[in-house]
Known about the structure:
By secondary structure, the protein is an alpha+beta fold. The chain has helices at 2-6, 42-52, 57-62, 66-71, 74-80, 87-93, 193-199, 206-219, 222-233, 237-243; strands at residues 27-29, 33-37, 97-102, 105-110, 115-117, 120-121, 128-135, 144-151, 162-171, 174-183, 190-191, 202-203.
Amino acid sequence: MGLWVTKQLRDISDIVYVGxxxxxxxxxTTDDWIEIGAGVSVDRAYAELVKVYPEFEExxxxxxxxxxxxAGTLGGNVANGSPIGDSMxxxxxxxxxxxxxxVDGLREMALENLYIAYQKKDMRDNExxxxxxxxxxxxxxxxxxxxxxxxxxxxxxxxxxVYAAFSFIAAGDxxxxxxxxxxxxxxxxxRAAHAEAILADxxxxxxxxxxAMIALGKDISRSSTCARAATTASIPPxxxxxxxx
Length: 245
Ligand SMILES: Cc1cc2nc3c(=O)[nH]c(=O)nc-3n(C[C@H](O)[C@H](O)[C@H](O)COP(=O)(O)OP(=O)(O)OC[C@H]3O[C@@H](n4cnc5c(N)ncnc54)[C@H](O)[C@@H]3O)c2cc1C
């Protein structure tokens, strides 16, 4: 919201500050799930995630800056749902779920299904994000391979140009249940379905990786990148394509 004021010069009317609601700030870890309340700060949320997924350490260090990591929440990042937000691709690659709450009760869904289109979410007017559930490495997921990469112009205090997160379960030489998710490449955080189809149950060797990289071209194209840039920056896609060569 700070950026709406400082960059877009929006006049924000009444604000409800939810930063002191204690029940929003819980973290609970079971064998199967890490539950992170929507009001948990980005810094604390990543500190908890890193205990199970040390692969998130770099994201933890590079998400905005320390003051923002302490003031901003994981729930706010997820609810805002910016296509260049840092947390969604990693959480979606890990098969995280989001819990929505309203006076009618709780509703839970795969996080990727929350994002319908640019700034359009499957969230009703009376709903808010209550928590995020991230599966642990229990059972079959003990063999989960996970990587998360933030690409930006500066090491820290910079929003992602692209965020890429990959996971699969290693079964012998085969990769099971691959999940590839990108931020900054479309109007919403986007899974790479074609590349995932190549990797699913495939033997893990060079040819598979090459085929997956080619398939990635069907998932993510220059036009989708330009469309995303245009939607975020309000520039017509054609102008954006010309500008980016
Ligand atoms: C200088 C600066 C640097 C930043 N750098 C990064 C960065 O590197 N990576 C990144 O991803 N983001 C970055 N951000 C954006 C922002 O700080 C994060 O997205 C943060 O996680 C937002 O959390 P918040 O609690 O401050 O949400 P807010 O900004 O308060 O809210 C964002 C939106 O989500 C809604 N919302 C908040 N919580 C909920 C909820 N529980 N349920 C429903 N709706 C909700 C609000 O109404 C609002 O519409 C940066 C921001 C600034 C100002």
